[in-house]
Amino acid sequence: MKRYEKFADEIADLIRTGVLAPGEKVPSVRHASRTYGVSPSTVFQAYYLLEDRGLIHARPRSGYFVREHAQSPLHEPEISSRQAQTTEVDVSELVFSVLGSLKDPNTVPFGSAFPSPHLFPLARLARSMAQSIRHMSPHEVISDMTGGNPNLLRQLALRYMVSGVMLSPDELVITSGAMEALNLCLQAVTSPGDLVAIEAPAFYATLQVLERLKLKAVEIPVHPREGIDLDTLADSLARLPIKACWCMSSLQNPLGASMSEEKKRALYALIQRHQVPLIEDDVYAELYFGTQPPKSVKSFDRDGLVMHCSSFSKSLAPGYRVGWVAGGRYAEQISRLKLMTTISPSVPAQAALADYLQHGGYDRHLRKLRHALEAQQGSMLASAARHFPASTRVTHPTGGYFLWFEFPEQVDSLKLFQLALAQGISLAPGPIFSATRRFGNCARLNYGHPWDAQSEQAMAVLGQIIGSF
Amino acid sequence: MKRYEKFADEIADLIRTGVLAPGEKVPSVRHASRTYGVSPSTVFQAYYLLEDRGLIHARPRSGYFVREHAQSPLHEPEISSRQAQTTEVDVSELVFSVLGSLKDPNTVPFGSAFPSPHLFPLARLARSMAQSIRHMSPHEVISDMTGGNPNLLRQLALRYMVSGVMLSPDELVITSGAMEALNLCLQAVTSPGDLVAIEAPAFYATLQVLERLKLKAVEIPVHPREGIDLDTLADSLARLPIKACWCMSSLQNPLGASMSEEKKRALYALIQRHQVPLIEDDVYAELYFGTQPPKSVKSFDRDGLVMHCSSFSKSLAPGYRVGWVAGGRYAEQISRLKLMTTISPSVPAQAALADYLQHGGYDRHLRKLRHALEAQQGSMLASAARHFPASTRVTHPTGGYFLWFEFPEQVDSLKLFQLALAQGISLAPGPIFSATRRFGNCARLNYGHPWDAQSEQAMAVLGQIIGSF
Lengths: 469, 469
Prior knowledge:
The first copy, chain A, has 469 residues and is an alpha/beta fold. Chain A has 16 helices and 15 strands. In chain A, helix 8 crosses helix 12 (331-341) and helix 10 packs parallel to helix 11. Chains A, B: Residues 1-69 form the HTH gntR-type domain.
């Protein structure tokens, strides 16, 4: 063990034992160097390592601070495998049995895919809805169906522009949520039997859509912090006739991984070299905890190869079912498929969102939402540290509302799911995130609901069940 | 020519020349028998024939009256062919080029698929939307996505009950318009390459959906008044491995044909014998002109073989994108496909419709709407009689908002479409309604917009173009 690693471990222990509390400043480099008799460069290296482990974070011109959830003694999971796996997909039954269990409103919703609706400005949205629908001309009710609400298209293009992506509203197709967008993108570029590169673990709906469209999955492993493994993807693209890649480049579901900007650029270069379209599912992008919004792979797209899908369901208006895709060279094809499938998302819902984006204070709401989610993440991580076995591993995502737990080998997460449900607690077991039903000792837990005594109690119960395996 | 046929023609002439005006009572049987020296039974037979031709209609205990549009000298088209045709479908490009032409709001919208939005209670709906969304609990915003709005489900089941169809709300799946419902139904019961029996002419979206899902169409001819040809269908079902039937049993698009109750019962017996599921597209059912609502094939369904699809888009709330399917034995499968495709239609739109159905006066609105459409049909038929060649044939549908014209042989309706568009008039040319691009001298015209001088002028221009072929 190198000197800086030893020093980093010492600081980590101070954090874990609560000597250095969450939010507290860690000693400055100068102070630490003098006090502990190590070189400033050793301190620097140690702090970089701790930052990398998610225990501390830098604030510009203020130094390093202990992160809110840093007292978690749980390590991050390793990347699961370095090999791509090709397989037919047959996971839907399992997913539906899990989803069916979430219907009971009295269940603690750790298994849910949605954050708490209380985090959203529903009353303000209702006002936007009432106002916009009162002022809607009869003509618009019909015309907004084929082309989408023009004001919403403008607002979306504006937000893309601010994030560094220049696109014409023509490239945007408004859809019935991101789920429809993803379905249409995949249909636009594949035929039954084709191979599609996806993540492992992947959002279970990805697997269901592949199954429905009779596509084969090439599972590419995802690093819990750095995202999809590019070497494996490059190898698969070279060896196999892959027709499309589908990935979440930021705050990946379920791991929360975000690729670095450099890595996103490399991913784009890779798909450009192979001229394989990329479906970029970016629905969590607005839920980052840092100061800088993550860039999308779309922002590097020169060839129109990237279909960038998102929605308002996770960040503003669940239930409104309005999403979109910036479809690049596939935009017209996607738009036609949409006209053949659902024609249009609800016109009043589009108008309400356009009004809200213009007048409702979306960015203010997002800042509040991000803070709430970051605090809740800290609470769940701390609670997991208290109640779960020490050998449990957990992700430290920099946004979103999911944690991915890797329990000790002997834990069967499907059994865990059943036992927990019997006690009124839901969770999303690992195997629903894999076409090959891997991740049998893993689970995704949702921290998107305000943390309270019931949450804490539920974590304690889960800890007991996990310990009983 | 029989005596009663000759007598019928004489009365028809009186109507056409305006001697007997629309709305006027025709001579009573006793009076006619005495005045014209024919037997009462000859008069009876003649009046039945005139009724059959759509020139007069009976009012209970009042006798026969001239129909509003009876001065139309145009005959009805014949059934096009008695043979089923099996074919790959490849009509989408043509359909999109026609639809694209409808975007200009200054075009006379005879080619549109929608009635005028001015015919709908948009302000009252807006009130229902504002009210229901204000009172919606945050929990409902999430829970209504998976299961549908419970009040809307109840209202729908109630309307089914009143129409004689008993079903549990469990059998109902709320969808993003009828278009999504039809897509999901077809996916639930077919795989790529399968044969599906459809109508000829058929709603063009039917053809597009088959094309998208790589299904093959078995085209069954439709009689312009009596609907699908059951003998041909029976023969096709006996000879071919047909996986599903898809038809509009009432007010078929584009012909406006409605099957008799007896024929619907026979259709059900047929599919039951072959155990082939029926997708019943019933979106125009509420737009009947008579006093009795048409029954659905679903009302005879004992085996859960019928998937009955409808929506509010044609009768109440275009642009809200809320439809549904009573899915019979396929309901759960359809519901799962929906969760994988769009998850849910807009939750606020569902709530608004539930509130409107309960408090808005839907049946009162429907009565008004039916009267408006019937009057507009009369206006278009009368105008066609004035401006189109006498050998033109036209349907006399008992509801909806489409007329189907069969022009003289030499008229190429795709050319007609281009020439009319250049003069600011849209129409839906016959070939987009057929997988085999038949109906080259036919067109569908929409009378769903209030009739005015511009409409009349547009018919005159169309007449000139038609005459120039």
